């Protein structure tokens, strides 16, 4: 089971801040998970098209090729600017 979190504008766009998902066979890294979620269509497609989307696995910054294992916590968040 994965615990997935969505932050900032992404959370608003998707209408949820988190979910739990059984780690599907063939999903071995963050990019594969992102693509699986984006395939839901609609607002979910933004996971694949949003430029500079950031990732974290187990509260550590991650890359799209970072491996995933059952029990991991994955976060998706858009780039944040401040002033």
UniProtKB/TrEMBL annotation:
GO terms for biological process: Mo-molybdopterin cofactor biosynthetic process. Belongs to the MoaD family. It comes from Accumulibacter regalis. InterPro entries: Beta-grasp_dom_sf (IPR012675), MOCS2A (IPR044672), Mopterin_synth/thiamin_S_b (IPR016155), ThiS/MoaD-like (IPR003749). The gene is moaD. Keywords: Nucleotide-binding. Pfam families: ThiS. The keyword Lipid biosynthesis does not apply. GO terms for molecular function: nucleotide binding. This is Molybdopterin synthase sulfur carrier subunit. GO terms for cellular component: molybdopterin adenylyltransferase complex. The keyword Nucleotide-binding applies.
């Amino acid at each position: 089971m994965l615990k997935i979190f969505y932050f900032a504008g992404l959370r608003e766009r998707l209408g949820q801040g988190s979910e739990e998902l059984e780690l599907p066979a063939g999903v071995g890294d963050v990019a594969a998970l992102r693509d699986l979620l984006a395939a839901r269509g609609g607002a979910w497609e933004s996971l694949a098209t949003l430029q500079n989307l950031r990732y974290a696995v187990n509260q550590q910054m991650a890359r799209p090729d970072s491996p995933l294992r059952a029990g991991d916590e994955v976060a998706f968040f858009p780039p944040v600017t401040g002033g």
